[in-house]
Design goal:
Layout lengths: L5 H4 L30 H5 L14 E6 L5 H12 L2 E3 L6 H6 L15 H6 L7 H27 L3 E4 L6 H9 L5 H14 L8 E6 L2 H10 L10 H19 L4 E6 H4 L2 H10 L12 H11 L2 H6 L14 H12 L2 H4 L17
Parallel strand pairs: 1-3, 1-4, 2-3, 4-5
Helix pairs in contact: 3-12, 6-13, 7-8, 7-10, 9-10
Length: 355
């Protein structure tokens, strides 16, 4: 599968027992260069999660249609509540995770293009579904970072859109004929076996902006590829949110909904959050033991990415063994993967060659 190349580029996890070499309290691991690891020995020696929690130790997801003001609300609310703000990831989120000095080639970043999707959503090369599946992976990896940050530091996280709401875009793409039913079946299988390993946000805040207004804001953005986003597509996203996602997520998490004018009143939103009791959802059933296992999962990014690797033959995106092998060697040929940090390729210091 084309997206199986993610196994090559996502940071691999170290065995749990490695933590015995350097047991750290509240150590955050989000990349291959981090030496602060949490593991079995950390837990055995007394590392616990719940003592770090306070009233704002929550994960909050801000959802809504394109250009609905999610980012502005998320940033202001995070500043107000003293929480970490995580902006919506793009197709190059892996570059941030791996801390590459040079961005990975597009072929190693999902081989998809957001611009192409908006310009040619029905492209025969499978770009639309590659984009959808790749962005689900990026959001899943970011969500694992959010949970890891929460469990490691106790600080709450506010992020723009979680992987739980990605289905609304899949539904809209299928309704508009951008992807085939076979792609929907594959995506649903991927999501069903991956999202169940995580805990949903404590709170989802939905920002409602009519599709007609969304289209006007996209045109006003000045970005060429957003000038002709079809109104039926935007309406499909809005419908999927209101009829599918919001009723479903309200059973697992707290839910607040505002129109764009109300969402600008951060004081009111913060006050509404304070009134919530957060008595629903699986978070109420967790303890230090379950947090331990969840933390072991979310710090292992390759394990997280592997959850989305489901073999499935889809002609427009499936690659053969030779192409997969070429992708592997192209990735391994990057200097950042061949040499240790600080290696001077011009001088040729072989002493710090990475074995």
């Amino acid at each position: 599968m084309a997206f199986r190349v993610i196994r090559l580029v996502v940071p691999s996890g170290t065995a749990a027992f490695k933590a015995c070499r350097s047991v750290q309290t509240a150590g955050i691991h989000t990349s291959t260069v981090s030496n602060l690891r949490y593991g079995w020995w950390s837990y055995a020696l007394g590392e616990r999660t719940t003592p770090r929690f306070n009233e704002y130790s929550k994960i909050i997801s801000i959802d809504g249609n394109l250009a609905s003001g999610k980012g502005a609300l998320a940033q202001k609310l995070a500043d107000k509540l003293g929480m970490l703000y995580m902006p919506e990831p793009d197709t190059y989120y892996l570059n941030q995770m791996t801390q590459n000095k040079l961005p990975l080639d597009k072929a190693l970043n999902g081989n998809c293009s957001l611009e192409k999707f908006y310009m040619d959503p029905k492209a025969a090369d499978g770009n639309s579904y590659r984009l959808q599946s790749w962005m689900y992976l990026m959001r899943l990896l970011q969500y694992s970072d959010a949970i890891e940050h929460l469990l490691t530091t106790g600080q709450g996280v506010i992020l723009e859109r979680s992987p739980y709401s990605d289905t609304v875009f899949l539904e809209a793409m299928f309704k508009q004929g951008y992807i085939r039913k076979q792609c929907v079946e594959h995506y649903n299988e991927i999501k069903s076996i991956s999202i169940c390993e995580f805990l949903p946000p404590h709170l989802v805040i939905y920002v409602d902006l009519p599709a007609e207004e969304v289209q006007k804001k996209l045109k006003a953005s000045g970005k060429p590829y957003l000038q002709n986003v079809p109104l039926p597509y935007l309406k499909s996203i809005e419908t999927a949110y209101k009829k599918s996602f919001l009723p479903h997520i309200s059973e697992q998490a707290e839910l607040l909904a505002y129109d764009t004018t109300q969402a600008q009143d951060v004081e009111r939103v913060a006050e509404d959050i304070e009134y919530l009791k957060f008595e629903k959802g699986p978070w109420t059933e967790q303890d230090d033991v379950t947090y331990h296992y969840l933390r072991m999962l979310v710090e292992d990014k390759q394990r997280v990415a592997s959850l989305t690797c489901v073999p499935y033959f889809i002609p427009e995106i499936t690659v053969g063994a030779h192409e997969f092998d070429e992708s592997y060697h192209a990735f391994r040929s990057n200097p950042g993967k061949m040499y240790a940090e600080g290696y001077n390729a011009d001088v040729g210091d072989k002493n710090i060659w990475l074995k």
